[in-house]
Design brief:
The structure is a single chain. The protein has 197 residues and is of the alpha/beta class. The protein is 35% helix and 23% strand. It is built from 8 helices and 7 strands, in the order ααβββαββααβαααβ. Strands 1, 2, 3, 4, 5, 6 and 7 form a 7-stranded mixed β-sheet that branches. A hairpin with a 5-residue loop joins strand 1 and strand 2. The longest helix has 16 residues. The radius of gyration is 20 Å and the shape is globular.
């Protein structure tokens, strides 16, 4: 009986020591990714554009206001580009809030299967991010100013959720893409987005 009580106390005490959460200092030093845009150049090197939500810090009235930043990194593959992005930033880059993964038409024609290994194996990347393809310039897509939403990733996520509610709408999440590429006809329908004036 005594051994059981000691075992229960040990199990309960480890649960208190193994939990953690963000604190104020951690959030101030973290950039939350809202969207990722993937492109390739003529040498098949990957260029990764990342739209970040950066919490403001300080004692001014602007505290709590979100700041948008866009970072660009390149590498021989998507993993190298993401790693180079982390190496070039003094902030921690957190992918858990990524809402949209956008491929340029050049990257999509090269083959989305060449990029999805990072999304499949990455523990931090959410599997509910929506997938899009764009023929537009990557920087113009991420720097567009909209009245409805400041962040392109959040706007596209909400747009995709609204499209699913209409009878003719469709949206594809990255987890559905993983499943569909191995089943049946292996055909995925991915939404195309482009800028309008």
């Amino acid at each position: 009986m005594r051994k059981r009580i000691i075992l229960i106390i040990m199990i309960l005490s480890t649960s208190f020591f193994t939990t953690s959460c963000f604190n104020y200092a951690d959030i101030n030093r973290t950039m939350f990714v809202t969207s990722m845009l993937i492109n390739i150049d003529n040498d098949n090197n990957v260029t990764l554009y990342v739209e970040n939500f950066v919490p403001s810090r300080g004692d001014t009235l602007e505290v709590g206001k979100e700041n948008k930043s866009i970072q660009i990194s390149s590498g021989s593959n998507l993993y190298d580009a993401a790693r180079n992005l982390r190496l070039n930033s003094s902030f921690t880059i957190n992918y858990t809030q990524c809402r949209a993964i956008i491929f340029t038409t050049k990257a999509a024609s090269f083959g989305i299967d060449n990029f999805i290994d990072l999304f499949d194996r990455g523990q931090e990347l959410p599997q509910r991010s929506y997938v899009f393809i764009t023929p537009s310039d990557p920087e113009k897509i991420l720097k567009v100013e909209m009245k409805e939403e400041k962040f392109v990733g959040i706007f596209l996520s909400e747009l995709a959720e609204n499209m699913v509610k209409t009878p003719h709408g469709t949206a594809l999440r990255i987890d559905e893409f993983f499943n569909n590429r191995l089943l049946g006809s292996k055909v995925n329908v991915i939404n195309l987005i482009e800028l309008k004036k």
